[in-house]
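To assess whether the prediction recovers the assembly geometry, we first specified each molecular entity separately, as shown.
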Amino acid sequence: MANLENPAYILPCDATEAERLNQQHNLLFRVLGQRLLPSSIPLEKVHSVADVGTGTGIWLQSLASQAPQLSPNYDQRYYHGFDIGDAQFPSDSRSEDLELKFTTQDVLKPFPRVFRSRFDLVHVRLFSFALQEVNLKIAMENLLRILKPGGYLYWEDTNWTSVKETSGLAEGSAIKEAIFRNMRSRGLSSHIIDIVHRLGLENGLRCLSKADYHSDDYPDVNVLGALASPAIEAFLRKLSLNERLTNNSEEPGELETLFKLHQELNAKGLLRWKETFTTVVYQTPF
Ligand SMILES: C[S@@+](CC[C@H](N)C(=O)[O-])C[C@H]1O[C@@H](n2cnc3c(N)ncnc32)[C@H](O)[C@@H]1O
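The predicted structure of the complete assembly is given in tokenized form:
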């Protein structure tokens, strides 16, 4: 893995984080009914796919390997993953076999000309810790430029206003407060999906589907809680690393203390995170 830490991004970019992203993908696959694409996106019309903020590329890899079985008249497709850092790009032979391409690209910068109007489908998943609210408009504009006319934008994310810690423990409230305070101070949006929806409509896109998946709909296995908790831990881990760098004291700071507390309570199964995960599909005008 190259480029181990990306200062512009608020989650870690290391092996632990890569493992979390892959586990998160498997959980989401279950939550979304073992589907990588919602039914509002007709796979037979999708020949070129970009996954922006691809991380380990697991969603793209899964789509590339499943597409031949999903589509009756399968023909060769083109898959390209983009991310601000290459630290987590897959280096295994599976990607080579599937002919996936991965390129570093900041979504806040225009994509190279060669990608203009190149893709039938652009997929974005979990940018809520990645993009500041003030930058969502420019990100949306850059994403739309790489879509063909009539192409699909598929965005999946968590509105952090939906995230709750329901154990009743004072420590749980303190951790939640710290997360929200740090999101606010970094300009991250707690309602990214609502902003994406507004920007989609402002850019003349047609909303084809919008689906919410609530923790409470999965009472036996708290799948979505199992999603939120490692994300929160990853956020606290990176914040506490930053705190260490700026703190002259040998004593652990507030965020490191909360990180350790979260680890400890979570390991004992005492925290009860709940959230709503939302998927939206838009189509660009022809
Ligand atoms: C929470 S991860 C999600 C990864 C992947 N979409 C998934 O669902 O497994 C967010 C990803 O966005 C990437 N990212 C952050 N800021 C970015 C930017 N400005 N442009 C492109 N990618 C960015 C991060 O490097 C990270 O891989």
